[in-house]
Design a protein that fits this description.
- The chain is an all-alpha fold.
- It has one domain.
- Helices cover 68% and strands 0% of the residues.
- The chain contains 7 helices and no strands.
- Helix 1 (2-16) runs parallel beside helix 5 and helix 5 runs antiparallel to helix 7.
- The chain is elongated.
Length: 141
């Protein structure tokens, strides 16, 4: 599962964070965001039988057999980071300006939708940090 998240994350970076991405027409960028979001949704659906990524860990009750809290957290955070990587391209004010998205009113719906997704995911990720145990033995990278 982590390899698939890493592969998708790599695709997101190459398609949305490259110089070529910033030279695309805004319509192409929005289409790319939608396609990547669909790929993420497909990946999330394949994980669903094992772990529900949209549900906070508190609501899960017990973890599936063979998955530790740290592994579940890692999967959740990989999912959250990929969501943010996909939708942030449309939500950052400087990105919208550089990409010319502020002048494209027909794309406003997707920009608004992406902003909502970024806000919701950020809140969920922040709340999930309460499960991260940090003490004097925690390595720092």
């Amino acid at each position: 599962m982590l390899i698939k998240f890493a592969q998708l994350s790599s695709a997101v970076v190459s398609k949305l964070s490259s110089v070529r991405a910033f030279r695309q027409k805004p319509e192409v960028l929005v289409k790319t965001v939608c396609e990547l979001d669909e790929q993420l949704h497909t990946l999330k659906s394949s994980v669903q039988p094992i772990l529900t990524l949209d549900t906070p860990l508190d609501a899960v009750g017990s973890l599936p057999s063979g998955i530790t809290l740290q592994q579940a957290l890692y999967l959740h955070f990989a999912y959250y980071c990929t969501i943010l990587d996909i939708h942030t391209a449309l939500t950052l004010p400087w990105s919208r300006s550089i990409l010319g998205l502020t002048r494209h009113h027909p794309l406003a719906d997707q920009i608004k939708k992406s902003a909502g997704i970024v806000a919701k995911t950020s809140r969920i990720a922040i709340l999930a940090t309460k499960h991260v145990h940090i003490d004097a033995n925690t390595p720092v990278s």
